[in-house]
Amino acid sequence: PGTSTPSAPHCWYQGVPREPGAHWMEPGCQNCSCQGGRVLCKAVSCSVPCSHPLPTPAGSCCPSCTGCLHEGVARAEGDVFSSSDGNCTVCICLAGNISCISPECPPGSCPSASPPDCCSCQPAKCNFRGHTYAHGAQFSLDGDDCTTCTCQGGEVECSFAPCPVLDCPQHQQHLSPGQCCFTCRDPPAPAGCFMDDNGVEFPIGQIWSPGDPCELCICQADGSVSCKRTDCVETCPHPIRIPGQCCPDCSAGCTYMGRIFYNNETFPSILDPCLSCICLVR
Questions:
Q1: Structural domains of the chain, count
Q2: CATH number for the domain including 220?
């Protein structure tokens, strides 16, 4: 008697009175309370007990485990769907968690290139001449590098090494030891030069004139023919042209009006019989 307990003070927050011990939510997911006349606020802490929660719904602060978010797609609770990896895996949404199950396939070889079911397959190996080869392996026969074999789904396919087409006649083709394909023999070294116009073969180093006295040809060491014309540098007013000789001769005499006169020889002029001419080699 005569004593009284003072009541707990109220809180004022943004102009609104709050009862002592009151709790309320403020924007930004702030949890506030009135404690001893003071307002205490702290961010809401979310405990998410699932692996694939849905994004925070409007008006809430924490993600929802009623449903699942998988690869950017929202799934309802209990939704069953196929995985995007294409291997027939089936997934289900349970309490915000995704569980996936892959089909169990018995071991065996592939029935075809594209199996109709969802089971993966292991291509069969090849047993060939006492050896086992994996699918896709390439190998050669015993000591025969010219034949290549491949294991394809339990079967062995062999083929010969491709050879190029040769441009030499068959009698010049030969097969070297350890080689798979024929090659052309090296042509024999030329023994001379063959002239197509008259069928004459000249030995290497032979010099001849093909018909023009001013042109000389020589048979080269590689069987080719090299020809060159002769340049005449000696000139005189009345040279003598000797048949079969390239350049005119100015040392033997003179040619005058179609006649040949020797050095120091005198003769009358055809144009004027009173004139006497003499051949002088200069």
A1: 4
A2: 2.10.70
**What kind and span of H or E run contains 43?**
strand 38-43
Predicted confidence (pLDDT) per residue in 133-162, tens digit: 988 898 887 767 788 899 987 889 988 878
Measured distance CA(251)–CA(262) in Å, rounded: 9
Asked whether the predicted pLDDT for residue 115 surpasses 80, the reply is no
Domain residue limits at 224: 192-229
Q: What is the DSSP letter of 280?
A: -
> What is the per-residue burial (b if ≥16 Cβ within 10 Å, else e) of 151-182?
bebeeeeeeeeeeeeeeeeeeeeeeeeeeeeb
For residue 16, the SS3 value is strand
Q: Could you please report the per-residue DSSP string of 107-164? A: ----SSSS-SSS----PPPEEETTEEE-TT-EEEETTEEEEEEEEETTEEEEEEPP-P
Phi, psi of 257 (to 5 degrees): 50, 45
Q: Are 192 and 200 in contact (CB under 8 A)?
A: no
Q: Could you tell me the pTM of the whole model?
A: 0.32
